[in-house]
Write a structure and sequence with these properties.
Helix 1 (15-26) runs parallel beside helix 2 and helix 7 (211-231) crosses helix 11 (278-312). This protein has helices spanning 15-26, 48-58, 74-84, 103-114, 157-163, 176-186, 211-231, 235-240, 245-254, 265-274, 278-312; strands spanning 5-11, 35-42, 62-68, 89-92, 97-98, 118-121, 124-127, 153-156, 190-193, 199-202. The chain is an alpha/beta fold.
């Protein structure tokens, strides 16, 4: 049977989580002869190659692994896989996400029923469980209005090629999906939201060991946000990246005007969870991370202005 669907999963240094991700993708209700999984290892330093090889040997569907010896970034990893894909339909699944058994069949049916000129998207539900992620119930905090989001989306391969693929300047990651989404929308594609195509995004419980990694991601997103709004100088881009006075004011409220900060975020998250308010815990943590993002965006923006002034006035 011809492969109709190619799942694209970039990964880096997530061996144990990737194993669970691939297990879920390999046990779909869709006939395994109709889909393939392409995993691109973006220069991992852990056991990722062994995990991919193990999945390749045991999965009923085709699992194809590719390795970048040095980190090239998520956009480059996804582009490599798109070029290598055999399916006419591409489904994006990140390596820290778990797909329920009906996930791929639901995406495939959407394109069959709605026609070729659509992007299919589904909910992304945050879970803290590696072993029982599908027991997690989604809520209002899991909602997204993004036109295109690589956490959970499917689109025809030929549309991705026509749009020019992901911009690899968004290194190592951040906003590349929104940028590509603008170009896909310009092709006239219609977004279809599938409520029954949920995927579960694993996030470990926040702790002093986990927090530095979360801050590092916000620093990377701040740099690529500057590239995004420079490339797309519109109010829509500013709102998408939360870089408006409204968002800054809302963030101040979200953090209790400084009551919750990097130094006590873990304690506040633990406290609110003990109160039975996990939603509030997520809001407070997101506020602290967003504040870190804003700070680093301002630093990157100031550095860019300084570089521009030096180029324009080399004698100063």
């Amino acid at each position: 049977m011809t492969i109709e669907l190619s799942v694209i999963t970039p990964t880096r240094d997530r061996a144990s989580i990737l194993a669970r991700c691939l297990d879920a993708l390999a046990t779909q209700s869709l006939d395994p002869s109709r889909y393939e999984i392409l995993v691109v290892d973006d220069g991992s330093t852990d056991d990722t190659p062994a995990v991919i090889e193990g999945a390749r040997r045991t999965a009923s569907c085709d699992v194809r692994g590719f390795r970048l010896d040095q980190r090239a970034g998520i956009p480059a990893a996804r582009n490599l896989a798109i070029r290598e894909a055999r399916g006419h339909l591409i489904v994006f699944v990140d390596s820290d996400e778990f797909a329920p058994p009906s996930f791929l069949a639901t995406h495939l049916n959407c394109h069959r029923q709605r026609g070729p000129n659509v992007i299919c998207r589904g909910p992304v539900i945050v879970t803290h469980s590696l072993f029982k992620p599908f027991d997690t119930r989604g809520g209002i905090l899991d909602m997204s209005t993004a036109y295109f989001d690589t956490d959970n989306a499917s689109v025809r391969r030929d549309h991705l090629l026509r749009a020019g693929l992901f911009d690899e300047a968004f290194y190592p990651y951040g906003w590349e999906g929104l940028d590509l989404g603008f170009r896909l929308r310009a092709l006239g594609l219609r977004r279809v939201f599938l409520r029954d195509a949920s995927i579960y995004h694993y996030r470990p419980e926040v702790s002093p060991d986990v927090l530095p990694g979360l801050f590092a991601k916000e620093e990377e997103r701040a740099l690529t946000a500057l590239r995004f709004i420079t490339k797309n100088p519109t109010l829509e881009a500013r709102f998408a990246t939360c870089l408006t006075p409204i968002h800054r004011w809302a963030n101040a409220v979200q953090r209790g005007f400084g009551t919750v900060h990097a130094g006590n975020a873990v304690a506040w998250v633990d406290r609110t969870r003990k109160w039975g308010l996990p939603g509030l815990a997520r809001i407070l943590l997101a506020g602290v991370l967003r504040s870190h993002y804003f700070d680093h965006f301002r630093a990157w923006e100031a550095a860019a202005r300084s570089d521009a002034n030096q180029r324009d006035h080399p004698d100063l």
